[in-house]
Structures are given as structure tokens and as C-alpha cells.
Amino acid sequence: MDYLFQQLINGLTLGGVYALVALGYTMVYGIIQLINFAHGEIFAAGGYLGVILLSYMASQGLMDSHPWFGLAFALILAMGYCAMLAMAVEKVAYKPLRQSSRLSVLLSALGMSIFLQNGLMLTQGVYDKAYPTEFTHGGFEWLGVRVSYMQIGILAVTALLLVLLNTLVFKTRIGKAMRATAQDKVMSALVGIHSDKVISTTFAIGAALAAAAGIMVGLYYGSVRYDMGFVPGIKAFAAAVLGGIGNITGAMIGGLIIGMVEILAAAYIPAGGEYKDVFAFVILIGVLYFMPTGIMGENVDDTRV
Amino acid sequence: MSAKRVILTLVAMCLMAGTATAATLKIGSLSPLTGSYAADGNDIANGTRAAIAAIEKEGGIPGFDKIELFAEDSACDPRQAVAAANKLVNEKVVGVVGAYCSSATIPASETLAEADIPMLTPASTSEKVTERGLPYMFRVCGRDDDQSIAAMKFIKDVLKAKTIFIVDDKTTYSQGLADNVEKLANKEGLKVIAHDHVNQGDKDFSAVLTKIKDAKPDVLYMSLQNSASGALMLIQAKRAGVTAAIIGQDAVYHPQLMEIAKDAAEGMYLTFGYIDEETPSYKKFLAAYEKFGKPGAYSAYAYDAAYSLLSAIKAAKSTDPAKIKAELIKGDMQGASKKIKFQANGESGSNYIIRVVKDGKFANFWDPQTGKKY
């Protein structure tokens, strides 16, 4: 029994990361119906900024005296930086194509993804970069189940960010403007909502969440690499589709499900470790085939959006 | 004709004359310069560069003004390796150092064989590399069957293990090695609890590690294709509370392993060729390699491969492949990595020993030949 619980905890941690990345996909899709393929690279950029900041602070001894302050500082700075990066990406690659066909924007997104990944490779090198992880090994054992503080940290930060995001989207003016723009861009503009600004903000928020995920992945696994955004990006995209693309709660649930399925497939199917990715994507195909709107998605008439 | 044009014409003529008399010896290197294996791949390219510098410092090769290296990216990918090999054939290189992943070396070697270009691999340990009867395929490193025998001897004689859990990441190299270990374990009467697989480039190993923690094997045989993956598995194994002795192989032998895993790497064993760091050859290599930083796992092997190739060309006074081969087999030199004596089948022998990670460094631990600790 403790074996199952241990695997569930593993799945929950992995799912939490996917959920945070998936939110960026789903929010952007919700508002401009674009699958932002450059999102995985924003996640990687967050991981890299994290390692640069944390290594610097560790070399100054700050991580020994004020580890929590250091972590929070790196997290907030990386989130801010990635938000600006995503806004710049949106300005350069997507905004000029606002009136073009969806396909052009999609291609632009793919190009941006390749550009950012190669940019990371050229500026940061092809080697893995190690995170200062001395403070992440701790944990406790409870009824035979080992939980590391890092796992709790990931889940806590994920939960906190989700609550903040929900408040932002459903309780604030900008959230209301985002929802209005998502429903009908033209109509919301007519009633005085500055849709370009709203779209830009949406990119920024999604990117900030991805940056947080990037840092947590770096801390949890111990290193980052320039191409680290690709696979989690695709998985998070699968999670967003599973949850119902465009739906925030759906992306969360989708992320957790994909994480769980991956871990449980590896845990219970003999030699399932090699097929865990297959399971994640079989779910994606199954959802697209049998339930195209996903778990939480609504039936949207395509002519309206 | 203006004065300016006269000067330009003269300059152009001088340049043309310069290229006409300067004979350049072209050699190639094939290794993954980008992607997951870029760390080892760049070490191989740099080891080759260091050997060229060393040879040039010793007076170069008579008949050639300079030695030019074409360092191509094989990306550990069969298709890209073949494309890169074709590029080297078009450049008319006289020999190639590489590649890294056996799965890329094998198809690339077929392309080079069609053009009769000698290939010396510093790192591909799969048995298949030299067992296809290619006339100009040489190997500077050891072989996986020898490597698995060394590992199993250690597991049985020193660790005295009864049960073993095997994990690989499904590459020609890593799975081949893991299969060898599984066969030997069955033969030696060890209980193989499971032989599980992960994917190349995975970051999360928590599911399989929880399985291992639950199965409580005496030994975990970790056959992963690169040191960064190895480091991630070590960190997570420590966190998951895996208590088994962990033994890896030559692919995770890289300073990067400890840089990432830090204290989680302590006490891990691995098989790697014995390198005597006290020999003058090794010191010469270190001096030539200095500008590239700390040598990685295959720096010395790549250096030896390139050095053997260039020495053979020098001795043969020719770039004819048959003559180079004759000189390679005739040669018997103390390289930086080991004593290199090529046999007719292209092998140069294995000398695997067990090393252990101690205080953030790889330390020699046990010699399977003598059965003694260092």
C-alpha cells in the first residue's frame, strides 16, 4: 500500500509541474486561439535564470544564511523576467499576425520556439547546468512513504499560484477584461477594453507561471539544459487539451492526470518505464478522438471565436 | 588600370600561389557537438584538436604545411551521423576520429568504409562496431563484453550481491551492456529482480526508483547513456531512499556527474578503462589539452585516436589507407589513455577497472585482473 502512495506522491509532483506549464498554453489559447509553441522555451528560460541567480547568491553565502528569502527572490525575479520575455515574443512574433490566418501564427510560434531554444544553447552552452541543491535533499518518512521537502514545496507553490491565478481571473478587473476578450474580441473592444493590452497581460501571466515551474524543476531534478522545455512543453500541451483547452481548471486537472498516468504506467506495467510517454500521448489522442472538448471544455461553435 | 586594381590583382595572385603550394592534411572528427551528449562530444573534438597541436609542436607531418580538422556533429543520431560522414567524404579527409554513440558510429562507419577512410573510435564500446569485418575500423577504447565481465566480477567478488536490479535507457550501447550484465548475472546465479527501461533524456525517474526501493536489491546496475541523466538518477535515488550499491559504466564517467549530483554521487561505482596518470604520455596530453579545460571521459581516448592516426600517416609517409592501416597495426605506443597496440581486427584491448566516486572525484577502486583494491 505504501508503494502505491509513494507512486501517487511522485505522480502528484510531476503533475503539478505539468499543470503550471499547461496553464500558459490554455490561457493563451483561450484568448487568441493560438497554441504557443514557444511556451516550453519560456519555461526553460525561467529554469536558467533561476540557476544563474541561485548560483550567484550561493557563491555570496546568501543561500546558507537566508535560503527561503533567496528562493523567493529568485522565483519572483525569474517570473518577472519571463513575463517580459513573453510579452516581447508576443509583440515580435504574434501581434503583427493578428489579422492573418491561424496557420501563420502557428508557424511563427514554432519559429520562435526554435529561435529561443538555440538562443539558450548559444548563450548558455550545450552542457547541463547544475543547480545549487544542497538544501533540497531533506524530507521525512511517514508510514513508509517518503516525502521530500522539495515535493511539498512544488505542490505548495503550485497550489498558491493557482489560487492567485483564479483570484486574478475571476475577481479582478483585468481578469474580467481577459474573460471578455476571450469570449469576443471585437465586442469587448467596442465596449472599451484595450484588447492588445489584455492579450499581452495574458502572455505575461502564463509565462510567469512557466518560469516558476522552470525553477522548481531545476531545484527538484538538480539541473537544467537548453532543450529542457521541449518534452514538458508537449506534455503540458497534452494536459491542456485533456483538460479542455482554454479552461484554467481543466489545465490543472489535465496536468495532474498526465503526471499520474505517466508515473503509474511506469510503476505498474512491467517494463512500463519505456512506454510512459506513450501512455501520456495515447490519452491525448483518445481525448481528441472521443471527447474533443476535453474534460472541462465547453462546446464552442467555431464560427463565434 | 588604376594603381588600386594592380595592387589587388597582385594580392590575389599571391594568395592563389599560397594555396597552390600549401599542402593541407585534412582529418575529420565525428561526435555529438549538440544535444544531450554534447559534453562528451565536445571533449572528443577537443581531444582531437589537442593531438593535432601536439603533433604540430613536434614538427608536424613532412610534406604537409598544416593539419586541418573538420569537426562534424553526429548528434548521436544515425541519420545525422551518416550525413556528417558524407560531408567528411566530400572534404576528402584521410582519417576520422569518432563517433561517440555506437548507434551513430556503426552507420557512419559504413559510409566511410565505402570511401576507404580509416575510422578510429575513441568511445563506442558496442561489440558490433568491430565485428562487421570493415577493413579500416579501429577502436581505442574497450569493449562492452569486457566491461560487463569486469562489472559482474566486482558485483560477485567484492559486493557479494545476491540480487540485482538493472535499468537502461534503450540505446544500442546502454541496452547492449545491460543485456550482457543480465546474461552474466543469470549465469553466475544472481537473482535478476527486473530489467527495466527508461527513455533517453528523461528527467523523472521517481517511478522506477520507488520500484527499486520496494524491491530492495543488493545492487542497482545503472546503464544510462550520459552523465547528466546519471546524475539525475543518483539525486532521485538518494531522495527516494534507495540503499542498493549503485554501479554504472563508462558513459557516466564525466566530471559533470559530480557537478550535478554532488554528495548524491558519493560511493557510486563505475567501470572505466584504467588510465595511468603518471606516464609522460598522459602529462604531454594534459599540457596539450590545457586550453580546453578539464579533460572529460573521452578526451584522452580521442587524443590517442588522433595521435595514432597522425603518427601512422607520418610513418607511412602516405595517406593511402592500406599503408596507414599497416602502420597502425605495426605501431605499439604508450598513449595517454593506455598502451595502444592495434590488432588486425581493429581492437586495441580493454582494461576496465572499477572506480568509485570519493570526495567529489573518481578514484581507482578495484582491479578485476588482480582482484585487488588500489
What topology emerges from the helices and strands here?
The complex is a heterodimer of chains A (305) and B (374).
Chain A (H helix, E strand, L loop, with lengths): L1 H31 L6 H21 L2 H4 L1 H28 L7 H23 L4 E2 L8 E4 L2 E4 H23 L1 H11 L1 H6 L4 H27 L1 E2 L5 H14 L4 H21 L7 H15 L15
Antiparallel strand pairs in A: 1-4, 2-3
Helix pairs in contact in A: 1-6, 1-9, 1-10, 1-11, 2-4, 2-5, 2-9, 2-10, 4-9, 6-7, 6-9, 7-9, 10-11, 10-12, 11-12
Chain B lengths: L2 H19 L2 E8 L6 H20 L8 E8 L4 H13 L5 E3 L3 H13 L4 E3 L15 E3 L4 H14 L5 E6 L3 H16 L3 E7 L8 H10 L3 E5 L3 H14 L4 E4 L7 H6 L7 E5 L6 H10 L9 H18 L4 H10 L2 E2 L4 E2 L11 E7 L2 E7 L4 E2 L1
Parallel strand pairs in B: 1-2, 1-3, 3-4, 4-5, 6-7, 6-8, 8-9, 9-10
Antiparallel strand pairs in B: 10-13, 11-12, 13-14, 14-15
Describe this structure in words.
The complex is a heterodimer of chains A (305) and B (374). Chain A is mainly alpha-helical. Chain A has helices at residues 2-32, 39-59, 62-65, 67-94, 102-124, 149-171, 173-183, 185-190, 195-221, 230-243, 248-268, 276-290; strands at 129-130, 139-142, 145-148, 223-224. Chain A has one domain: ABC transporter involved in vitamin B12 uptake, BtuC. Chain A has twelve helices and four strands; from the N terminus they run H-H-H-H-H-E-E-E-H-H-H-H-E-H-H-H. Chain A starts with a helix and ends in a 15-residue tail after the last helix. With 374 residues, chain B is α/β, with parallel strands linked by helices. Chain B is built from twelve helices and 15 strands. Chain B has helices spanning 3-21, 38-57, 78-90, 102-114, 144-157, 172-187, 206-215, 227-240, 256-261, 280-289, 299-316, 321-330; strands spanning 24-31, 66-73, 96-98, 119-121, 137-139, 163-168, 191-197, 219-223, 245-248, 269-273, 333-334, 339-340, 352-358, 361-367, 372-373. In chain B, helix 11 (299-316) packs across helix 12. The model of chain B has no long low-confidence stretch (mean pLDDT 90). The A-B interface holds A 3, 6-7, 10, 13-14, 121, 126-128, 130, 133-134, 137, 139, 141, 146, 148, 150, 217, 221-223, 225, 227-228, 231, 262-267, 270-271, 273-274, 276-277 and B 33-36, 38-39, 42, 167, 170, 194-199, 201, 203-204, 206-208, 210-211, 213-214, 228, 231-232, 235-236, 238-241, 256, 259-264. Chain B: Belongs to the leucine-binding protein family. Chain B: It comes from Solidesulfovibrio magneticus str. Maddingley MBC34.
